[in-house]
Write a structure and sequence with these properties.
By secondary structure, this protein is mainly α. Helix content is 80%, strand content 0%. Helix 2 packs antiparallel against helix 3.
């Protein structure tokens, strides 16, 4: 899956040339992030299934979504480092 930045770069014709090693590292970073997100979704669903309080369920969903955003942001920061960005 490509990031919004990658898609924008492709559309503008400014796509960065990545080495095969960089591409592999980026794929690995994204695969790990994807597995962490899946794990969080499963764990949250398991916790929610045993809850009856709508407020507690909403809070857990919010916490889970924040954690997933943190995982994704961390992965994108790692990808930028691999690309040679800031």
């Amino acid at each position: 899956m490509k990031s919004a930045l990658e898609l924008a770069m492709e559309r503008s014709g400014v796509a960065a040339k990545l080495t095969p090693e960089q591409k592999r590292k980026i794929e690995d970073i994204r695969a790990v992030a994807k597995s962490k997100v899946a794990e969080e979704e499963i764990m949250a669903a398991k916790k929610i299934s045993g809850m009856n309080d709508p407020a507690a369920i909403a809070q857990l969903k919010e916490q889970s979504a924040a954690f997933i955003r943190k995982i994704e942001a961390g992965a994108e920061a790692q990808v930028e480092k691999v690309r040679g960005g800031k």
